[in-house]
Amino acid sequence: MIDRPLTHLRHVDLAVPDYDRQLDFYTGVWGLTTVAEDSGIAFLAAEGSPEQYVIRLRRAGDKRLDLVSYGAASPADVDALAERLIADGVRPISRPGTLDTPGGGYGFRFFDVDGRTIEVSADVAARRHRRIEERESIPVRLSHVVLNSPDLNRTRAWYERHLGFRLSDTLGHPRMGEVMHFMRISSQHHSMAIARGPHTSLHHVSFEMRGLDEYMRGSGRVIRAGFRKIWGPGRHLAGDNTFTYFLDPHGNTVEYTTELEELDEDTWHPHVYDFSEPEVTDQWGTANAMNEFVAKESFNDPDHGCFVAPPV
């Protein structure tokens, strides 16, 4: 059995009806680079990341989360994970094999407990990337993804059992109970979080910036371009990272962040933080107040792609 089959988050793939508008936003405003485009599919890289791409956009009639992709250490680990998942009754989409996407590699796809498509791959060629310079306010890399689930603890248990995620911290509320679990696959505080929502959907995708100045400059650029800021700037307690959240043209929440906490896994014990306390949601006190209207924005639209594999 592979206790820790995953190494890192690779990319998040989105299907969008207004493809051209989304592509303009992610490249012209958000700061990603188009590395390949063909027949309504664009692969977008972060300049500081060795990943071939961190966002894939696909032209489609309906908005959906196409898939979330993670890395594995070797093809042997990919094969072992596929065998274990099938034996445990996880629904496969494809068998391990060669990937026909930028960088190639060896991987497979399957559905998670909520019906999202997950991809795991190894041996993807590293992209030639570069150091992000001072005051260059574009993403260095993909930081993390947060997923909405109507059954928070069922989803958490599935990811712990099948993919080796570990709990870092939990957000709770005196009346609402547990509302978010921060999950890790490395010493990074979280590569994924699971939020309690009314339906299965994408909560947000987060991008790491070079530093505080670049984070603020990037946030200012998005505001000046006329895109809606939901929440921020501020600094969370869980993860100790900065945050500013925006809506992309199709209503997906995207975040600029920096300084996400690195844990000492030998000594770390998960906390349960009361997010009704203002200093939990924002240590600085600079963000607009977290309330039901802010939270509702990140519920997103119900994902109609559940248990339906993307066509590519």
From TrEMBL:
<dbReference type="InterPro" id="IPR050383">
    <property type="entry name" value="GlyoxalaseI/FosfomycinResist"/>
</dbReference>
<feature type="domain" description="VOC">
    <location>
        <begin position="141"/>
        <end position="259"/>
    </location>
</feature>
<dbReference type="InterPro" id="IPR004360">
    <property type="entry name" value="Glyas_Fos-R_dOase_dom"/>
</dbReference>
<dbReference type="InterPro" id="IPR029068">
    <property type="entry name" value="Glyas_Bleomycin-R_OHBP_Dase"/>
</dbReference>
<feature type="domain" description="VOC">
    <location>
        <begin position="8"/>
        <end position="123"/>
    </location>
</feature>
<dbReference type="InterPro" id="IPR037523">
    <property type="entry name" value="VOC_core"/>
</dbReference>
<protein>
    <submittedName>
        <fullName>VOC family protein</fullName>
    </submittedName>
</protein>
<dbReference type="Pfam" id="PF00903">
    <property type="entry name" value="Glyoxalase"/>
</dbReference>
